[in-house]
Each structure stands twice: as C-alpha cells, then as structure tokens.
Amino acid sequence: MNAIDQVPDGFADSIAELGIEFDDGDMDRLGVFIDTLLETNKKFNLTAVKDPNQVWTRHILDSLSLLPCLVTEEVHHVVDVGSGGGLPGIPLAITMPQVTFTLVESTKKKALFLHELVEHFSMDNVTIIAERAENLATPDGGFRNIADAVIARAVGPLQVLLELTIPFAKVGGVVLAIKGEKAPQEIEEANKALHILHAKVESSRRTATGTIVMIRKLAATPKAYPRFAGEPKRSPLGTRNNSR
Questions:
Q1: CB distance 201 to 158 below 8 Å
Q2: Distance CA 167, CA 3 (A)
Q3: Which listed residue, 41, 69, 71, 92, has the most CB atoms within 10 A of its CB?
Q4: Contact status, residue 103 vs residue 80, Cβ threshold 8 Å
C-alpha cells in the first residue's frame, strides 16, 4: 500500500488549521516522497519513523508547520541546514514551488538520495549541496548572507544550531528552528550565543508537532563565525569552556 493511501485521520484538518491550501498534485508528490524515503531507509538510515501513517504527521505536517512563517516573511530563498532525508526542505519545496531552496547535507549518501529525489520530481527550485555548513557559511564560503530564511530540524541544541545557521541568513532575515518541549530551556542556554552572533529570539510557538523558534538576524555575523568544522558542536558558544 502506498503512502497516499495511508493519510491519517485529521491530517487535512491540521493542514487547514495552518492556513495551507494544497495545489493539485501536492498530496500525490508528498506521498511519493514518503514512499521513496521509506524504501531508501531500508538501505541506510534516513528516519526512525517507518510507518507511512506516522510519517504524514511526524515528518510532513511537522515540516509544513514552517510554511505560514515563510509566507509571512515573503521569502524568496531558503537554506535548509542538515536536511538529512529532505526534512523539512523537500515538503516545503513541493508546496512552495515559487521559492528556491538550498538543502545542505554533509553526509554523502544522504546528499545523493536528495539529488536523485530532486531529479525524480524535476524540482527546478531545489539545489543540493554536499558539504558541512561551517565550510559554506564562512566569509569566503560562497553561501554567507544569501538566505531570507534558514530552516533546521533535529540538527542539534539551539546553542550549537545558531552558529551553523545564522551566517547563512541576510541581515534582517530569520532562522526557523523546529524544536521540542525543551525549547524554552534551549533558548535560555543560547542567550550568550545569540548576543555573540548578533541575533535575537523573536518568537517561540507551539504547534501540533513541536515548537517553532524564530530567530531574527540583527546585524552582520562576526567574521570569526562559524568556526572550523566540528568546533561549534565540540565547544558551543557561551559555554563555560567558550564564553566569548
């Protein structure tokens, strides 16, 4: 049975509550995405969720919860950091064909899966970059200050995530992070990092599937950030060992 035949009860209502109206073919394309994701997941790990019925809620609905924010921000270019199996970038790109998406994924197998997926769907609005975020967002990395919005889901603690995402955003742009119930604690722990990176948390809103934290980039990111690959995770900004 295909995923399109296993849409859970209440999914349509949840989508309507977000103010989303699908175009013809969107649901079918999302269903094919789920089928492809789960089939590839048998070869190497892309998701711990293996039931198509659950994927519709835990992955698709969760990803699309960002759509109203992106519409409000009137974005033209979005960067998805740590896209993994294409979440949240692919569902958003399917439903927002007028917006361009750059999906950043350093794991080569996952990046190849994303390339094949984009080719299968003929998604002209999506580019896949197989590289670490730290290398792309440096002053000479070619991707600094390019995005109206940067999105991330299940990448790491906010304190770490900020250094990996904020440099991609234009001044005045936003980072949209999908977090869980511990979002308030993560925000508090990230206060120093926010100050260092010239950003602020503008809102934190619970959804049916998680918490969306919106961070506004207030000024240019200091040239020292992001640091070398792996350093943000090893020594998060604002910790006792790194209080710069």
A1: no
A2: 37
A3: 92
A4: yes
Rounded-to-integer distance, Cα 118 and Cα 233, Å:
30
18 SS3 class: coil
* Continuous segment of H or E residues that includes residue 136: helix 133-136
* pLDDT band at residue 118 under the 50/70/90 scheme: very high
Q: What does the alpha-carbon distance between residue 15 and residue 151 come to, in Å, rounded to a whole number?
A: 19
> Which residues, in sequence order, are CB contacts of 121 under 8 Å at separation 6+?
29, 32, 33, 94
Nearest to 170 by CA among 193, 202, 137: 137
In eight-state DSSP terms, residue 126 is E
Closest by alpha carbon to 225, among 195, 201, 202, 203?
195
CB atoms within 10 A of CB 58: 17
At CA 70, angle to CA 68 and CA 75, rounded to 5? 150
Q: Give the span between the Cα atoms of 161 and 193, in whole angstroms.
A: 10
**Tell me: the pLDDT tens digits for 174-228?**
999 999 999 999 999 999 999 999 999 999 999 999 999 999 999 999 999 999 9
Task: Indicate the burial class of 163 (C-beta count within 10 angstroms; 0-12, 13-18, 19 or more).
Answer: buried
Tokens of 244: 């710069």
Q: Rounded to an integer, what distance in angstroms lies between the CA atom of residue 70 and that of residue 68?
A: 5
- Among 153, 125, 187, CA closest to 59: 153
